[in-house]
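Field: COMPLEX_INPUT
Field: COMPONENT_COUNT = two
Field: RESIDUE_TOTAL = 540
Field: MODE = joint
Values follow.
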Amino acid sequence: MKIIIPISKAKELARLHTLKLSQKTIFGTVAITEFFTDFADVIMFIIHLVKETFSRKFEMREFLKQCFNIGYKTLPLISVTGTIMGLVLTIQSRPVLVRFGAETILPGMVTVSLLREMGPVITALICAGKIASGMGAELGSMKVTEQIEAMEVSSTHPMRFLVVTRVAAATLMIPLLILYADALGILGSWVGANIKGDVSFVLFFSQAFSHIGFIDFIPSLVKSFFFGAVIGLVGCYKGYNAGRGTESVGKAANSAVVLASLIVLIVDMIAVQITDILGK
Amino acid sequence: MKTEQLELIAKETPKKSSKEAVIEISNLYKSFGSQEVLKDLSFKLFDGENLVVLGKSGSGKSVLIKCIVGLLRSNSGIINVFGQNILTLDQKELDEIRQKIGFLFQSGALYDSMTVKENLEFPLKRMKKHLSKTEIDAKILEALENVGLPDAIDKMPSQLSGGMRKRISLARTIVVDPMIMLYDEPTTGLDPVTSDEISLLINDIQKKYKTSSIIITHDIECARMTADRLIMLQDGGVYEKGSLNKFEKSTDELIRAFFK
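Field: COMPLEX_OUTPUT
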């Protein structure tokens, strides 16, 4: 059966259809333009950051203050998570290994897991939550309350004073926090192994360290520097480029955590691939 | 001619003839996207005068002084500060010019993570590198005494009231001995008594530090107390300029809306 539509209605339908198509094209174009603008912004931010990092006037005092804030003030959180990480990993793995009579490889297995993957990634994700959000919120509120502009008119480069110091401090302190979390994780693992079994401290550690080599340690140390740089960079970028209203402070903090966590996982995936290729 | 009439003529005549311009703005344009904020704006700030800039919210007053200090880059025009065009300076030259300009932000812009003393030390250590620790301490104390808050030296900004924050912010601005002061709505958000105190402080600073000032405001009491000369901005350009007396007696509807 043929459906007959009056010409005027057909014209109207065609017009609406064209309108919808052009709207979609416009929205698509805007989204693509925004993406490339943001990308260019990030590149410019990184170039500016690198340029300021290697300028002669390094703000050493502010850098040390940030090292204290990022490193020392995160210690309690990392202590708890590091210990729990090792403890839980041991308690979960032990029954399976006992079933196969491979209980003796437990310290080595847990230590390798902690050093290679669990320690760096979980610590970095926790640092992304605490440090990146803190930087995003702090710099965001400084922007909203004109403190960054006040710095600029005081002949101080905000990028050098606020961003370079924070990114450098995060790049240096987060690997140290990761090493600390790894150490506590192994200690937690020994505690976990002693909850249901009986392993001496010396035996546990000699078994643990007999299973690890530089290939377990060096790549994870290298990637932890990248984690630190990513967390500092994303936190500062989001805060430094926050909008003018107070709601933008919350947005900056929130997006800093989300983006930093995502990039940490992506960097980890790339690092694992590179390690795998180099290890062959 | 009667003495009263002579006085009136003297008040009507801006004090510019004998003084040179420290800031000279010509044909300034500034837009954000398609929104034009400043359009062909031209005026001068003369040495030692308090120039009050009036205008409705969104008329481009704050944008204007941010362009003067180089925080915002104008699209075209000339901003001469002490004879140097801000728009053609490199970063180092801009930093040198900025050392001669004090900027009081609308929000005060005190650094939240620093004490009052550290807030005042911050610009001093960067702009007056030759000063010793003792000289820096003496200058901080002097600036705090000038704003009447020497006891607040060890307080954090969060422990200060709105008026105190404004005063400390003013102290941070004058501590580096600026030659030009730019005030961005100095009395906004303050009660009438504190507003008057801030206005008096502006006059004290002008006398003591021999500064030339641009005071952005829509607080008429502040304008009355501080202005040597006024300009009113409207639609991105100068709508009216002249003495306080001229503004007070104007029959123009927009000006009357301010001077009711």
